[in-house]
């Protein structure tokens, strides 16, 4: 019995995001930016503040669901590469979280912004992905 080629998500097998993943990430970024501007400049009433938080959160949940759905379509090698990349990102962020308070007290680190953590996670994931791809290919 042979399996049909999945034409809806051609890019998944080569480690790239699908169009749905990109759309949800862009929606999350856009709604987060709108929420930040809304909260910082307008000081809206409570229902608008709740929406400013919940809409990007809903987009993030939709992105996570799409990512898991796309990962179910990967073969074992690609799953292993993604798992090693995720482990590299998580462990690197864990080490940074453990070292940061000491570095801050010693005067080597300043205030930590949330976006720094996102860049750290993304960068470590890319490093882990490139390392695992090189090793398994």
Instruction: Please compute the radius of gyration using only Cα atoms.
Output: 19 Å
SSE sequence, one letter per element: HHHH
| Tally of domains | 2
Number of helices, where a helix is a run of at least 4 consecutive DSSP H or I residues: 4
Largest sheet: none
Mean pLDDT: 89
Shape: flat
Give the oligomeric state.
Answer: single chain
C-alpha termini separation: 27 Å
Number of strands: 0
| Unreliable stretches covering 5 or more consecutive residues | 8-14
Helix content: over 70%
- Fraction of residues in β-strands: under 5%
The helix-and-strand class reads: mainly alpha
Secondary-structure topology with pairs:
Layout: H1 19-42, H2 46-71, H3 76-105, H4 114-136
Helix pairs in contact: 1-2, 3-4
């Amino acid at each position: 019995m042979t399996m049909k080629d999945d034409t809806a998500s051609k890019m998944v097998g080569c480690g790239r995001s699908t169009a749905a993943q990109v759309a949800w990430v862009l929606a999350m970024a856009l709604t987060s930016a709108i929420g930040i501007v809304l909260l910082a400049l307008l000081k809206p009433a409570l229902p608008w503040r709740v929406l400013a938080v919940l809409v990007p959160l809903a987009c993030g949940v939709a992105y996570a669901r799409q990512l898991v759905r796309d990962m179910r379509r990967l073969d074992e090698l690609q799953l292993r590469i993604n798992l090693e990349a995720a482990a590299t990102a998580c462990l690197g962020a864990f080490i940074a979280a453990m070292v940061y308070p000491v570095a801050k007290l010693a005067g080597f680190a300043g205030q930590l912004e949330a976006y720094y953590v996102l860049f750290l996670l993304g960068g470590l994931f890319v490093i882990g992905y490139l390392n695992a791809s090189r090793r398994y290919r």
